[in-house]
User: Which sequence fits this backbone?
């Protein structure tokens, strides 16, 4: 089973190719814009490192958010097009699910990623995962996340999230994992995984709205 993982929901363009659970090709660049121009080239680079052609793929797993609106749309459109061209399945994995790729399936997990960073309006994207049951991502205020964190759940957050939460709670029971193209591809291979449609997951409306027509 050869799986391509595509993660463009942040300030980077990240591509990974797995043969079963084994990473065989990887390419990543940090960037704030220009994902659409670099993603095809990075995918070809990862395929060359893996020693495969893209028509050998069995599945394309793409990050569907939450994250950068533009980055998500670029990744989803690319994954859909590549899967269609090669007659393979495309599946969506959230940023939060990707953080749980290596966590035992019998654990109840709360995955959180910082959304709004400026106090006092700090919020987190949040998703609870129990076995093969996953809730939908939501946006929660910091206070709600701290309250949930006191429950008997396995709390997972990113490096940036740990910096924020560490000012309020002990991090001794918090696992720090940053989602990657490799981890979202591995999550799609996880036992009990229920394929999600490869469509963008937007937890809130864009910060910018389209201009109204003048006439």
Assistant:
């Amino acid at each position: 089973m050869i799986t391509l993982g595509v993660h463009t929901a942040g300030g980077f363009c990240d591509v990974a190719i797995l043969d079963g659970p084994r990473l065989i090709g990887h390419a990543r660049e940090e960037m704030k814009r220009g994902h659409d121009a670099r993603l095809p080239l990075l995918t070809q680079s990862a395929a060359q490192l893996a020693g495969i052609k893209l028509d050998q793929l069995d599945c394309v797993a793409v990050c569907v958010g939450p994250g950068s609106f533009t980055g998500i749309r670029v990744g989803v459109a690319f994954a859909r097009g590549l899967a269609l061209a090669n007659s393979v399945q495309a599946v969506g994995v959230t940023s939060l699910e990707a953080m749980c790729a290596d966590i035992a399936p019998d654990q109840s997990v709360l995955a959180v990623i910082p959304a709004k960073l400026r106090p006092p309006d700090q919020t987190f994207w949040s998703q609870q995962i129990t076995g093969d049951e996953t809730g939908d991502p939501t946006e929660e205020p910091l206070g709600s996340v701290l309250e949930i964190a006191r429950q008997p759940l396995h709390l997972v957050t990113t490096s940036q999230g740990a910096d924020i939460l560490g000012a309020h709670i002990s991090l001794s029971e918090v696992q720090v994992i940053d989602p990657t193209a490799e981890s979202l591809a591995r999550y799609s291979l996880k036992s009990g995984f229920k394929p999600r449609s490869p469509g963008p997951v937007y937890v809130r409306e864009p910060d910018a709205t389209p201009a109204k027509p003048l006439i």
